[in-house]
Amino acid sequence: MVSGIKTKDNTVGIKFYNKANALRLGNAYKEAVANYLNAILIDRNNAESYLGLGICYKHLEEYEKAIKFLDVASKLQQDNPQTFFELGICNLLLGFPCKAIKNFIRTIQLNPDNPDAILQLGISHELCEEYELALMIYQKLIENSPGFLKAYEHKSTLLMKLDKYKEASNLLSQILKLNPDYYKAYAGIGLCFDKLGKKMDAIRYYRKFLSLKPFCEQATTIRNRLDKLKFETPQKEYLYVCK
Predict the structure, then answer these.
(1) Does some domain include residue 71?
(2) What is the pLDDT of residues 44-65, one digit of tens each?
(3) Number of neighbouring beta carbons within 10 Å of residue 177
């Protein structure tokens, strides 16, 4: 039985709902919207139809419509963490991080073990320029979910933004202990050493990054920086670190 739809009276509504779900999962969002709307016309109290409709509008980048229908879903079903998570994401995408905070807090209250919601809460506080609170949230997430690399990445990026390069490089080194092939960490550590004036260390990590991702968008910028470092570094030292 689908939550919110009475199978006895609304067989047609259930068919529309199930078809909408299948279309949404197949990334056919426009087609799914039409079927969710038909399901809602038959049963206006089905929270899951409003949720699915909101998710479709999010993927179609119609965020205001998404929020409108997700808000209805949250009122009809107040204990579904996915609804509040999607509301938070849509507020972030609309550029309203401070509004997103309450949605992610509600998500975490309903599902305390959702690392993505905790991460998004930290991102929201960061976008609201509440940096210390964001750092605290990222750190708590690292402690509770030590394998969740995105938490390390976001915290280290914020630390670099705050010119705390030594702390950031230490954190990025922890990522490499967990995953030596996490190429972004090499670029980040290289930048940290570069900012700290440790040119030889910067060169070493930049080169490691390029060995892993030679054709990515960031590679051109790093190659240009390496050329400048080569010019600034005595040839003997540069050749030594490049061995």
Answers:
(1) yes
(2) 999 999 999 999 999 999 999 9
(3) 9
